[in-house]
Every structure is written in structure tokens, then in C-alpha cells.
Amino acid sequence: MATSTTYTNITPLNSFGSVQLRWKENVENFERGLSTVIGDGLLCAGFLTYSGNWGFKTRGRLWSLWKSLLSSSSIGFLPSLSVVEYLSGGSDRLKWSGSYGLPTDNLCVENAIILSRCGRFPLVVDPSGQALSFLTAKYSCDGVVTSR
């Protein structure tokens, strides 16, 4: 009887070992993130500020240029940083594509991020009509209507 009680009490202690390992990994990831937060923030701020009026290729060139400037200035950043992942959550992207009908390609999602996080009223050039459909669906509950 005492033996089964001992094993019962040891089992939760063994599970703490895996929790400790996960916490250690989380701390290491957090410390790595702290070392790149300034560069990551600068890249994303530059994206939000300057990328809105450029197409996909030019945005890519700007992104590469900014990364090289940060590297030459010895400012750390995450080399695999994704603007889409950094500036929007999965739930945002699901809502944009599901509820508002936004296409899931990177350019459309980047544009939605800029529109959602922009502090000013952006000029939207929309020859395909995708942005109009997205914005109308997103802000329909606020009484926004389109006029032509």
C-alpha cells in the first residue's frame, strides 16, 4: 500500500521535469526575442510607414534594403521575420479571409495589416475591387456605405 502511494506521488514530480524543460525553452526564446526586438520593430515600423503605396516586388526590395542597413549598423533582427506573422494574429487573418472575404495572398494580407494599423486615412487604389469589398464588409457594422 505504501509503495503505490509513493509511485502516485512521484508521477506528478516527473511531469514537472517536462514543464521545467518547456519553461527553459520559453525563457531562451524570450531572451532571443529581446535581442532582436529593436531591429524587428524598426523593420515593421518601416513597413507600415513606407510600404503602403508599393507593390509586392518593391516591398521586397525595401525589406532587403532595410535589413542590410540594420546589419551594417549592427542592429540585431530576426532574419526570418515575417511581417504578416509579426503584425497580425492568426485570428485576425482568419476573420479577414472568412468573414470579410479577403484573399489569402501575402499582398492582400499585408494591405489589410496596413489598413488596420494605419493611424491616418490611407489612399486606396483598388483596380480589382478587392479592397472595396474587404473594407465594406469589415466596416458594414459601423454603417459605412459605398458611393460611386
Kindly describe this structure.
The chain has a domain at 82-148: P-loop containing nucleotide triphosphate hydrolases (Rossmann fold, 3-Layer(aba) Sandwich). Helix 1 (2-50) packs across helix 2. It is 68% helix and 0% strand. The protein has helices at residues 2-50, 56-72, 83-87, 90-98, 106-117, 130-138. The mean pLDDT is 85. It is mostly helical and 148 residues long.
What brief labels describe this structure?
mainly alpha; 68% helix
Please outline the major beta sheet: none
- Total DSSP helices: 6
Provide the residue-averaged pLDDT: 85
| CATH classification, class level of the domain at 82-148 | Alpha Beta
Sequence of secondary-structure elements: HHHHHH
Q: CATH superfamily membership of the domain at 82-148, which one?
A: P-loop containing nucleotide triphosphate hydrolases
Beta content comes to: under 5%
Low-confidence stretches: none
Structural class: mainly alpha
CATH architecture identity of the domain at 82-148? 3-Layer(aba) Sandwich
According to CATH, what is the topology of the domain at 82-148? Rossmann fold
Shape: flat
Estimated helix fraction: 55-70%
Topology summary:
Layout: H1 2-50, H2 56-72, H3 83-87, H4 90-98, H5 106-117, H6 130-138
